[in-house]
Design goal:
Length: 308
């Protein structure tokens, strides 16, 4: 079976939404990606770093989901990456209040030997130099490399980020960031401009308005499931990325047609993430819930129309 290698931040997050506030809770790109991908029962491993202040029980929880955590370095005396953010009333946009890189600042990733030949590689959000460092350790060219990033790295490490972007097959990015990276307001033009930077596939996430997949002249759109209650959108993008790469790893098929299905699975999984603060909802997600919502997704989007 194919394997999924994940790199990304592991964090303490302090989040404020119109519905409440949390003190430091576990977050970061990698846990959301890993938990989401674990729904496909595939072999996966996380490469990341935490400080000595990080709860080891959380790593055990990831292991229980069959996620290999041997590539997560624990820095003695170090402090875990910290991020705090505040969502606006519409929950589609947020302000970063604070980013403390801490142990992420000088992290040298080490890919576990078993994953140096992973077929699918998910470069989750963290410093582009670390993302590049992971690619350099691979002993076999992966079938697909997917990159997720955010405005923080566009602002602070654009040159390095462009180097990674040039090396990946797929980029997943939100609408505002796509506009920032490309300098284009139209998302169609933005995707075209980003394709020229390297990735053959561009996925633009639009929060509650769904996601778009671009490849050459082809465009596919999947809505987000309209939910009665959205509590905390943090991690939805990473959960989406985990669902996307998890499904592609499971099916071992990276055609555009299969990527469309991957986008639907990704949107489906992301719809759960936002229902609770932090990773809680993803930690306890049941197969039946996922299947039921997938059916709702189908009903929401399928229609017959006669073309004359
Ligand atoms: P998302 O809502 O999918 O964009 O991801 C939110 C997660 O990204 C949070 O759990 C944060 O800890 C993490 N995060 C925020 N800023 C950064 C950053 N500069 N680098 C890596 N991860 C970050």
């Amino acid at each position: 079976m194919s394997k999924l290698l994940i790199v990304g931040s592991i964090a303490f997050d302090a989040i404020e939404t119109p519905f409440g506030k949390t003190n430091k809770i576990v977050g970061g790109a990698a846990p959301y990606i890993g938990l989401s991908a674990s729904n496909f029962n595939i072999p996966s491993a996380i490469v990341s770093v935490v400080g000595e202040d990080f709860p080891l029980e959380y790593l055990n929880k990831l292991e229980e989901k069959n996620i290999d955590t041997s590539g997560i370095e624990i820095v003695k005396g170090g402090k875990t990456f910290f991020w705090s953010g505040k969502y606006h009333n519409d929950l589609n946009s947020r302000d970063t209040l604070e980013t403390q890189l801490n142990v992420l600042a000088d992290f040298n990733p080490i890919v576990p030997n078993d994953y140096k030949d992973a077929e699918i590689v998910m470069l989750g959000n963290l410093h582009p130099i670390v993302q590049l460092g992971v690619l350099e350790q691979l002993t076999k060219k992966p079938k697909l490399v997917v990159l997720d990033t955010m405005n923080f790295w566009m602002d602070s490490a654009l040159e390095d980020l462009l180097k990674v972007i040039a090396k990946v097959d797929v980029i997943t990015i939100n609408d505002e960031e796509a506009r920032q990276l490309s300098g284009e307001y139209s998302l169609v033009k933005a995707a075209r401009a980003i394709e020229k930077m390297g990735p053959k596939y561009v996925v633009i996430k639009k929060g509650e308005h769904g996601a778009l997949l671009f490849h050459n002249e082809q465009i596919f759109f999947a809505p987000a499931l309209p939910l009665e209650e959205v509590f905390d959108p943090t991690g939805a993008g990473d959960t989406f990325a985990g669902g996307f790469t998890g499904f592609l790893t499971k099916t071992d098929d990276i055609t555009f047609e299969n990527m469309k299905k991957a986008i639907v699975h990704a949107s489906n999984l992301a719809s759960f993430c936002v229902e609770k603060f932090g990773t809680e909802r993803m930690e306890n997600l049941k197969r039946e819930e996922v299947q039921k919502r997938l059916q709702q997704f189908k009903e929401l989007t399928q229609f017959e129309i006669e073309l004359s």
